[in-house]
Each structure stands twice: as structure tokens, then as C-alpha cells.
UniProtKB/TrEMBL annotation, chain A:
Belongs to the binding-protein-dependent transport system permease family. LivHM subfamily. This is Branched-chain amino acid ABC transporter permease. GO terms for biological process: amino acid transport. It is found in: Cell membrane.
């Protein structure tokens, strides 16, 4: 039998890996848009929040803009009086995210073709604030619980199995296990899509050079709607996982901040990088808290990821999997 | 009236005995203005099926602008573009590409992060039929299609003698090879018309000779109509069947290389005139 200390470290590592998956889910959305358009999408976190809000809204049959309508017309509307099953609400929300992608292309990106990346970045900051406000007006600012039927709580199977095997029951959250499985499927699909499909190749082409992409017959507009739809869908998945874990509230948009160090580690252009980066940060911060934390007063999880990212910026700016830009002079 | 007469136009036979077909593309009274600047003034010319057509002229004559009009990157202020006997409405560059008009750029527009092979494969995007959902659902047929396209691309790679750099990211290649990869990508689209914007700019003599050979071979083997812009007079005269000469946005000459060479206006534009 292994000593308890090692087993505990193992449990911490496992939990760290699962937390890492949650970070990676958010980071993935950033990578997708960055790969396809060279835009660092500041609004990705808000996109996840908006998706979660819309999902809860659909599920509970909330009337959109209810507060606004009530304030204007003196009515007292709140819900349609139905509750939708989780899967229907998810499908509807996915539709809304596609519609949103189309609108973003129509109203924002279309007018910014051939602009430098910083302009597009600024546009996404504007987009972030707009979406946050829109989500607030549409669905209200109260904290909501999200339950689409995902299993939650400590997995008894894992606990009893490890207890029987190692004499030490591991505490693993069911939701984390689901998140991991979903993330694996998502990443596999996205990688195959971008590497081997016609649209995937067009997507990489657009990311590289707009002019050249046009000359081989790629419609920039279609690709952008496609990319933002996919990013919206990934945001929806992240929104479901995070919303189920910690409730749908406006601080959800701040999970984007935790995705930044993940991206610096993994590289802004690599899908596998987002996953590995997330895992390293997840495990790193849990193990650091467990080993070094007690010596320096704890609460290291708040800053560990950022310090690690800083070190990467100094020694390996392109991240673990990012493309190193080589320019011939 | 034009749709029919244009296609009926008799072809001609070149000096080296190649048979050239009827009119494939016709530019009618093209004028292009940017604000107060007139880049192209009322220019008309045609491109015949199977010929190598050159547009020459001093710097700033409007040659690249003309190529951009043909490829849809610029929309002419006035005038009409006729292609295959039909008038082409205002189109986006990607739609023009889908019509079968491929191009290269003066300062190379390749996908630097992708390999040579992937770059050339993008050239075939317009020819790939399988849609996004079909690709997701019928993985097998998508893969068969992919390998069929891959085969064609490998032929082009052999043709342009770039087998050795197939898997190299384009960003790492020297200038001359990049130009060749760009040509390969344009060829991969199996275009009706191939537009080359200064295909030999910045090359050394050996690279220029290679490029010349490839252009002639492409025209010969695939029967591709080629319209090119070039500075190097010697190269142009050797290569092309007919030449349009532009100066300050106007057409000052049009004809076979010998005719153009003898044109006093052309001589004046290139060498200057004596003031008495």
C-alpha cells in the first residue's frame, strides 16, 4: 500500500487535472478565433456568460427583456410559464449563438476587413461590454442556478472503487468527470475539422492571409460566421460547465482571466496547447497550494497561474505549442 | 449582340504556329478612379483563349490596377468586363476566383504558416464539392475526394519541380521558391485564365529562366490562358503572343511584340522623346 501522503497528492493531482479541463474549455474559444482571424477575442468570457444566461432563460421560460417591458408598459410579465428539458434549451441556445455570430459579422467585423489586429481587438472589448449589458437587460442580473441534468456531487463509484483498491477513497466530482469527457470529444472533433476538412483548411488560410484567401475563392464572411459560431458553441459548453458548477452570475465572465495564463502556456494558436496549458495550470496550482502553500500562508491559487505565465512570457513567448514566427530579413 | 459576336471572333495563329481561339475575356472602356486620381482611363482590350497576353508599361502606368480589375479586387468606375461571352456584374474577389480566374501577387500572398502542400491544396477549395455537413456525416466520401484532389496537386508539384519542399512551411522558403509555390497554388485551381502579377520581379537570371520555362509549359501542357504583367522587356517579348502597353493609365499600344516594339508612342514612353 502506498503511504497516505502520496495518495493524497495523487488525489490533488487528479482534481487539478479536472480543474484544468474547465480552464481549457474557456481557453479553447480564444484559440479558435485567434487561429482563424488573428483576433484576440476579449469577449470570449462574456460569450460564455451570455450563453449560460440564455440557456437558463430558455429552460425556465423567462420572457426576454421582461424588466424593460414591465417598466415601459406597466405590465407584470416574468415567465411564459413553461420549463423546457435541458437538451431542447441547449439546442435553442446553440441557435442563438449562431445568430449572434452572424450579427457580429454583419455589424462589426464586416466593416473592419484589412484593419490591424489592435483595431479588431478593441472592437471585441466593445462587444464584451455590449453583450454583458444585453445579457443583463434580457435576462436580469440575479444569480441563477443552472441544471441541465448533468450529474453533480462526489462520485461514489470512484470513491468506493479507489477505497477497495488502494484503501483510500478519492473524492472526485461527477461534474468534473463529465467536463473531461466533453472536452476530449470537443477537442478531437475540432482538431479533425481544422486539419482535414475543406472548411478547416479555408479557416487556416483566412487566419494566415486575407488577400491570398480571397484569391483562392474563399468567402471571408462565411468563414467568420463559421468561426464565431463555433466559438459561440464552445462558449456555450464552457458556460454550461461553469454555470452548473458555480451558478450563472456575472462574475462568470471573469473566468476569461483564468484562460489568459492557459493561453500563454499553451500558445495562442494551438488547440492541443489550450488543453495541455489548462491541465498544467490546473495541476500546478493545486499541487503548489498543497506543497508550498502552507509554508507561505496559502491562497496561492489566486496568483500561481499568472506567475507561471509570466515566466513563460520571459523564456518561451510563443508558449509550448504556439507557432514561432520566423521572418526572413 | 456582343455575347455572340465575341465568341465567334476568329482565332489566329501565332508566330510559332500555335492556334489561338476566340475571345475569352474582354475589357470594354474600363475606367478606374480613386477619388481624384484616375488610375485607368478608358482602356479596352481582349484576351483570347489559349494565348499568353502581357500588360507592360512604366512604373505607375496602372498595370497592377488593371489586373486587380480583372481579378475582382477592384471594381471599375466605368466600363464592362466580359468573360466567356457574358457580362460580369460587380463581383467579390472570391466569386471571381470561383469563376476560374486565378492569380498571383506582386509581393507574394501565401499562407506562411502552412506547408507547401497545404498551400497548394487551398487552390483546390473552389473545386471541392462536399459541404460542411456532408463532410461531418460521410467521412469516407470526403476522404476519397481529398485524395483525388491530392493526386492532382502532386502532379502540379512534379510539374513545377518542388517535390523536395513539399512539407516545408512556406515562411521558411527563399523568395524564388515562394513565387513558384504561388504559381502552383494558382494552377491547382485549374483556372481558365491565370493572372500573373510580375512573376519574375526580384529574381536572378537563372530563376527568371526557370519561371519563363514554367509559364510556357503551363500554357503548352494545360492550354491555360495567361495574362501577365512584367517589367523586364526582354522577357515579355520572348514570352507573350500579344502585348498591351499602358502609360499614365492610358493604352498606348496593343499588338504582337514586333508591332509594339515598332510603335513610336511605346518607344517614347520607354525611352523618352527628343525635344527639339
Amino acid at each position: 500500500m502506498l503511504p497516505d501522503q502520496i495518495l493524497f497528492a495523487l488525489e490533488v493531482t487528479l482534481n487539478g487535472l479536472m480543474a484544468g479541463v474547465m480552464y481549457a474549455l474557456v481557453a479553447l474559444g480564444f484559440v479558435l478565433i485567434f487561429k482563424a482571424s488573428g483576433i484576440f477575442n476579449y469577449a470570449q468570457g462574456v460569450l460564455a456568460l451570455f450563453a449560460a444566461l440564455t440557456l437558463v432563460g430558455f429552460q425556465n421560460g423567462q420572457i426576454p427583456f421582461a424588466h424593460l417591458i414591465n417598466a415601459t408598459f406597466g405590465t407584470n410579465l416574468h415567465t411564459f410559464g413553461w420549463t423546457l428539458p435541458g437538451i431542447v434549451a441547449i439546442a435553442l441556445t446553440a441557435g442563438v449563438m449562431v445568430l449572434l455570430a452572424w450579427l457580429i459579422e454583419r455589424l462589426v467585423l464586416k466593416h473592419l476587413v484589412n484593419q490591424p489586429p489592435i483595431i479588431l481587438f478593441m472592437a471585441t472589448i466593445g462587444l464584451a461590454y455590449f453583450l454583458e449589458g444585453l445579457g443583463d437587460v434580457m435576462w436580469g442580473a440575479d444569480i441563477k442556478t443552472l441544471d441541465v441534468g448533468l450529474p453533480q456531487g462526489i462520485s461514489e463509484t470512484v470513491e468506493s472503487a479507489t477505497a477497495a483498491l488502494l484503501g483510500y477513497g478519492f473524492f472526485i466530482d461527477n461534474l468534473d468527470i463529465v467536463a473531461t469527457i466533453v472536452a476530449v470529444i470537443l477537442v478531437a472533433t475540432l482538431t479533425i475539422f481544422s486539419q482535414y476538412s475543406k472548411q478547416g483548411r479555408a479557416l487556416r488560410a483566412v487566419a494566415d492571409d486575407h488577400q491570398a484567401a480571397l484569391s483562392v475563392g474563399i468567402s471571408l464572411r462565411f468563414i467568420w460566421v463559421l468561426v464565431w459560431s463555433i466559438a459561440g458553441f464552445v462558449a456555450l459548453v464552457a458556460g454550461i460547465m461553469w454555470g452548473t458548477k458555480s451558478g450563472v452570475q456575472f462574475s462568470l465572465s471573469l473566468i476569461a482571466l483564468k484562460a489568459l495564463p492557459v493561453l500563454m502556456l499553451g500558445g495562442f494558436t494551438s488547440i492541443p496547447g489550450a488543453i495541455v496549458g489548462g491541465l498544467i495550470i490546473g495541476v500546478g496550482e493545486k499541487l503548489f497550494e498543497f506543497t508550498i502553500g502552507p509554508m507561505i500562508g496559502g491562497a496561492t491559487e489566486n496568483w500561481f497561474a499568472y506567475v507561471l505565465a509570466l515566466l513563460f512570457l520571459v523564456f518561451r513567448p510563443q508558449g509550448l505549442f504556439g507557432e514561432k514566427i520566423i521572418e526572413r530579413v | 449582340m456582343n455575347a455572340e459576336t465575341a465568341m465567334k471572333t476568329e482565332g489566329y495563329t501565332t508566330a510559332d504556329g500555335r492556334k489561338i481561339g476566340g475571345v475569352l475575356m474582354e475589357m470594354k472602356n474600363i475606367t478606374l478612379r480613386f477619388g481624384g486620381v484616375t488610375a485607368i482611363k478608358d482602356i479596352s482590350f481582349d484576351i483570347r483563349d489559349g494565348e499568353i497576353r502581357a500588360i507592360i508599361g512604366p512604373n505607375g502606368a496602372g498595370k497592377s490596377s488593371m489586373l486587380n480589375v480583372i481579378s475582382g479586387f477592384y471594381v471599375p468606375t466605368e466600363g464592362e468586363v466580359w468573360f466567356k461571352g457574358f457580362r460580369r456584374g460587380p463581383m467579390k474577389p472570391y466569386q471571381v476566383a470561383q469563376l476560374g480566374i486565378a492569380r498571383t501577387f506582386q509581393n507574394i500572398a501565401l499562407f506562411d504558416g502552412m506547408t507547401v502542400l497545404d498551400n497548394i491544396m487551398t487552390g483546390r477549395l473552389t473545386l471541392m464539392k462536399t459541404g460542411i455537413l456532408a463532410q461531418a456525416m460521410w467521412w469516407g466520401s470526403a476522404q476519397r475526394e481529398e485524395s483525388a484532389h491530392r493526386e492532382k496537386v502532386e502532379k502540379i508539384i512534379d510539374f513545377l519541380e518542388i517535390q523536395a519542399i513539399r512539407k516545408t512551411p512556406v515562411g521558411r522558403l527563399p523568395y524564388g521558391l515562394k513565387k513558384r509555390v504561388e504559381l502552383a497554388r494558382a494552377l491547382a485551381a485549374e483556372p481558365k485564365i491565370l493572372l500573373l502579377d510580375e512573376p519574375m520581379a526580384g529574381m536572378n537570371v537563372e530563376e527568371k529562366e526557370d519561371m519563363c520555362r514554367f509559364i510556357l509549359d503551363v500554357n503548352d501542357e494545360f492550354g491555360t490562358t495567361i495574362c501577365l504583367i512584367e517589367h523586364d522587356m526582354g522577357v515579355v517579348m520572348d514570352l507573350s503572343d500579344r502585348v498591351v502597353v499602358m502609360d499614365y493609365g492610358k493604352k498606348i499600344g496593343d499588338g504582337t511584340p514586333d508591332e509594339v516594339r515598332a510603335n513610336p508612342e511605346v518607344i517614347a514612353a520607354y525611352l523618352g522623346v527628343a525635344h527639339d
